[in-house]
Amino acid sequence: MSTQNEFREEPGCEVEQDDPARSEAQIAAGQRAAVAPNSSTYGSDDAALKIGVYICRCGGNISDVVDVEQVAETVKLIPGVATAKVHTFVCSDPGQHTISDDILKENLDRVVVASCSPFLHEQTFRGAVARGGLNPYLYEHVNIREQASWAHKHDPAGATSKAIRMIAAAIGKLRHAVPLEQIKLPNHRRALVIGGGIAGLKAASDLAARGIRVLLVEKSGELGGHLNERGRVYPSEQDAAKLVAELAQRVNRDARIEVRLSSQIKAVSGFIGNFKVQVESESALPSEVTAGAIIVATGFRCYQPQENEFLYRMDPCVLTLPDFIQLMRSTPDSARHLTVNGRAVNNIAFLHCVGSRQLDGVHEPQTDGRLNTYCSRTCCTTILQQALAVRRRFNKTGVYSFYQDIRTYGRGEENYYIEASKAGVVFFRYNGEEPPKAEATPREHARRGALSITVKDTLTWNEELTVPVDLLVLGTGMIPGDIADLIEQMKLATGEDGFLQEVHPKLRPVEVAVNGVLLAGTAQGPMNIQETLSAAGAAAAKAAAMFAKEEVELNPFVAEVDQDACCGEAQCVTQCVYEGALRLVTREVNGELVERAEVNAGLCVGCGACVAVCPQRAIQLNGWRLDQFDAMVDGIADGVPGQNCAQELVQIG
Amino acid sequence: MNTKISSDFKPDAVVVGGGIAGLQSALDMADQDLKVLVVERNASIGGHMIALSKVFPTLDCASCITTPKMSAAAHHENIQILTNTEVQAIESGDGVHRVKLLQKPTYVNFDKCIGCRLCEYACDTEFRDRFEEGLGAVRAIAVPFTNAIPQKAVLDAEHCLTCGTCARVCPTDAIEFDQKPRRLTIETQAVIVASGFELNSVTLKPQYNAARSQNVIAPMTLERLLAPHGPYGRVLRPSDGKIPGSVAFVQCAGSRDESIGVSYCSRVCCMYAIKQAMLLSGALPLADITIYYMDIRAFGKGYEQFFQNAKAMGINFVRGKVARIDPLQGGDLRLHVETTEDAENPMQERVHDLVVLAQGMIPGWNPAQISPVACATDGFVATPSLTAPTATTAPGIFTAGTAAGPKDIVDTIAEAGAAAMQACQYLYQKREAALVG
Questions:
Q1: pLDDT band for position A47 (cuts 50, 70, 90)
Q2: What is the mean pLDDT of chain A?
Q3: Residue in A238, A405, A496 nearest the CB of B296
Q4: A541 → chain B, closest CA residue
Q5: If A508 and its partner were Cys, which of A10, A29, A490, A503 is the partner (CB 3.0–4.6 Å)?
Q6: Which of A65, A87, A93 should one mutate to test binding to chain B, selecting the residue with the greatest count of B CBs within 10 A?
Q7: Do residues A47 and A18 lie in contact, with contact meaning Cβ atoms separated by under 8 Å?
């Protein structure tokens, strides 16, 4: 058996000289050693292992800084490395083929890919490894892009050396790796949809139409959400009520959907395939329901301007956009003008971006200290839709739009801008740093208008203009829903904007970090109706795909208790922050009843808090065992034997 | 993949287009245990996205996002892919769609080709590489690009001199000069039209003089110049290889302009211009970068912050319409700009080394005459349903992505999921009805 010292002193590839018969025995020995906690830092089976290392150029993202050829040449010297190859895009199909082919042809038994973040491609390469017939957990992913080439852009030599060390660490870790199997758990074929706005309705009806049972929970007494308060939807100009009615009817008629109105989520526990949710209803006793997946479709709130923001609540002639839509809807067709505060409205100002696109130093932060720096996406078109409607209904009413950028981006939306311009809507463009000012007109001038709006108009070379109006409509946008409890219960993440955060906007756009929880609609950020319906459909598609399998498959990186070593001290249980993931159970050992820790693999997230506190080292994380950490540290410290890395390390500092 | 498909193959759904929309909808259907055929007219799947450098607003490298989806589709047991294949017609009746396909000859037997590229290395004939927007050269027989799927050589009959070198070096005798186009009809229950977009021509507005100057370029050209694995590996201007010191982006050069018949907004140009400006200022720290715009439409999640970051980085945003671009001797360009912000000097002339014209998105394929799918007045696939935005006018045919109007990648991917869901429930309900009936 070689020792750690021998490994250091005798570098080079002895792989080929080894007796194959001995090698097999050594693999077995190595695997046993890996299972046993506290095994020596370096396995004795280096010669037996056949590790393939694949180094990605990532186009040039990596190879422009890291000398990938040198990395390949150097890591070949690490005992156990059978092949080290460089590829332009290892994630591409030919790159992946190389891996699976090498596994088959060269009998590789461990694989390392040094490329981008594991967040992007760990799953990709596990797939390639599995296609080669190797256990996908005999694979290590090394991030030499974010952590080497991008972090040390101006130090190519240092980045190269770091990449080598990181790969050496991964190889060390792999020496102690054992094959793992995905955790399979029963899949409860029912979805919980939280929120009965159009996103929730669409997701529920899509899933039910696919044969999946749904429980839809809505906190208010009716379905449809904000859409109940809108008149016509753009660009079809159909009645919003019709859209809501169509979706609600589909939901109410489908026997597979149970709707609970005036109900709220009180507690969420469990995991993908088997969530337990406490639902409290006004009309019924609280009950626990089981669902395999949860779709969060809790929507948005309308921005409420702060006290005195553009005279809001100070002057009755200032309304928000939703209020204005109500005014338009409640004004009879026979009316010859709009009426506000008992006065005929002869001139209206629409002010865009109120509560959106806020700038530091210009706008007052919200009560939570946050600025709404984002664009609310829907207000420009809604304003122009309303502006056009005013001009068409009351052709004597002057309409003025104060904007920064007109964002009529969607299909059919630009027409509102074109038509509004043709219909005589007058546009003033302000710079975000100098928003217009609204003032109540002194009584003696009130005949011209109750309010005056002053703007530095960048369409006329920053001329300062004052426009008297009878009504100011604040183009208020969207803010995140009031779902702090739900965020807490479900451990959801929010972005800087306060909306729920997806895992990745392109790779996993409707998923969150918690498996089995999906996002639909404006809970995730501002969207228009069509985008909301599409997002809901996308969330339903992911849920339906999940339900297509009999069982839920999870990564095996969970804690495992060595029942022989555990003394039942329960320090791990105390430390565990994931409710239900660890508990004490009573077992019979040698005729005695003793307490032992037990892991619930569905709830354990593999954080390792338990591992750190166990005095017996009786609890370990599969895939991240303590001996693997030791080996990684050695790999980083030693780099490649014979390459005089210790000196470099000092230089890198 | 690819050649084994015969007329007997009856997928549950056919996806027209192997770009990001088509791949995502194929994956979302296949994950629900449906058999899907993806038909792609080009030699590789991946669409426009695979040719991009990085993508906004995360600045992820585009290949890093696209290749896993390409690869996942290629390896999915429920997905078959046909490249070099055009949809010539979709005939619908009795709830069945007969999709008529034309498989174009590649002159390479894909069953035999192992993607070794020996033919490519041996070929003497080179021509401008369309994948590199004409900036690089490609051999007359070649694997389409580094991360193409499938990794099979394709022979370009237009440029091939039929010298036979490739056939002599091919270790598997895969070259077949006598290949003929092949017609086949696939019967299916559902279709997703994900045929994507094209860009209108940079020469559309003669006053911008793109026909007269190589340095008035298309945004996709700049994408390739910025891509780390692009034609030059760095940003050089096409006419003389000069490192540009001053770059202008002219926005709405092919959209929001009734004079060229595109009155709509192409929805992505503001953001990609900002992204390219950011990448340029990374690649060329000394360069002046100016974006001439009408409105900055940074509407998506994280987009406004991206725009504000660009301003903070020192990228110049000038609100004004560029009236004319004059090529100067030596390759520089003089822009005549009308700004509304500079009272002293509203009509300006500014000289730049390189100008990027924001082209407009136009439909990539017109299904109107050859299938029951209707298009709207903007030329994109019509989606009349209020509650199902991915449903077309034809039952059982759905649409996703830019086939139904300009869209960014994030919105395309969401819509692809929605279209897949719509198709899956359509198929499920048909089966349920058949069981009941």
A1: low
A2: 89
A3: A405
A4: B421
A5: A503
A6: A93
A7: yes
Nearest chain A Cα distance for residue B373, angstroms: 18
Q: Running DSSP on this structure, what letter comes out for residue A146? A: I
8-state DSSP, A148? I
Q: Judge whether B319 is closer than 8 Å to chain A, CB to CB.
A: yes
Residue A130 to residue A127: CA distance in whole angstroms: 5
ipTM of the complex: 0.96
Alpha-carbon Rg for chain A in angstroms: 32
Contact A505 B227 (CB under 8 A): no
Residue B371 covered by a domain:
yes
**CB-based contact, B340 to chain A, within 8 Å:** yes
Chain A: residue whose CA lies nearest to B50:
A92
B283 lies within 8 A of chain A by CB: no
| Backbone region of residue A606 per phi and psi (left: phi > 0; alpha: psi in -120 to 50; beta: other values) | left
CATH class in words for A188-299+481-548: alpha beta
Indicate whether A35 pLDDT > 80. no
pLDDT exceeds cutoff 60 at A33: no
- pLDDT at position A40 over 70: no
Question: What sign does the dihedral A104-A108-A114-A120 (CA atoms) show?
Answer: positive
Instruction: Tell me the average pLDDT across B72-99.
Output: 95
Q: Could you tell me where the beta strands, DSSP code E, fall in B200-332?
A: 216-217, 246-250, 288-293, 316-327
The predicted pLDDT at position B7 comes to 64
* Residue B84 included in any domain: yes
Give per-residue pLDDT as tens, A199-258: 999 999 999 999 999 999 999 999 999 999 888 999 999 999 999 999 999 999 999 999
CA distance, residue A314 to nearest chain B CA (Å): 30
> How far apart (Å, rounded) are the C-alpha atoms in residues A380 and A220?
28
DSSP 8-state symbol, A149: I
Average pLDDT for residues A577-594, to the nearest whole number? 90
Range 152-211 of B in CB contact (< 8 A) with A:
none
Question: What's the pLDDT at A39?
Answer: 33
3-state secondary structure at position B317: strand
Residues of B in contact with A506 (CB under 8 A): 55, 58, 60, 65, 409-410, 413
pLDDT for residue B146: 82
Q: How far is B146 from chain A (nearest CA, A)?
A: 8
pLDDT for res A286? 86
Mean local confidence (pLDDT), B189-201: 97
Residues B81 and B58 in one domain: yes
Quick check: B395 contacting A, CB < 8 Å? no
Confidence of residue A612 (pLDDT cuts 50, 70, 90): very high
Question: Residue B64: which of A116, A429, A497 has the nearest Cβ?
Answer: A116
Gap between the Cα atoms of B190 and A536, Å rounded: 21
Cβ(B150)–Cβ(A97) below 8 Å: no
A411 vs B115: CB contact, 8 Å cut-off? no
The minimal CB distance from A88 to the residues B146, B297, B417 is found for B146
Look at the block and give the residue holding tokens 């589709």.
B73
CATH classification of A46-181+628-652, choosing from 3.40.50, 3.30.70, 2.40.128, 3.30.160?
3.40.50
Burial-class residue A474 by CB neighbours within 10 Å (0-12, 13-18, 19+). Answer: buried
Q: Which residues of A touch B76 (CB under 8 A)?
A: none
Tell me the CATH number of domain A559-621, given options 3.30.70.20, 3.10.290.10, 3.40.630.30, 3.60.20.10. Answer: 3.30.70.20
Contact B32 A548 (CB under 8 A): yes
* Same domain for B377 and B340: no
Q: Do B410 and A505 touch (CB under 8 A)?
A: yes
- Quote the CATH superfamily of domain A306-478: FAD/NAD(P)-binding domain (3.50.50.60)
Residue A37's pLDDT band (boundaries 50, 70, 90)?
very low
- Interface A:B, Cβ pairs < 8 A: 235
> Which of these three, B336, B361, B386, is where a domain ends?
B361
Six token digits for residue A136: 């996908």
From the list B265, B340, B346, which residue is nearest A408 (CB)?
B265
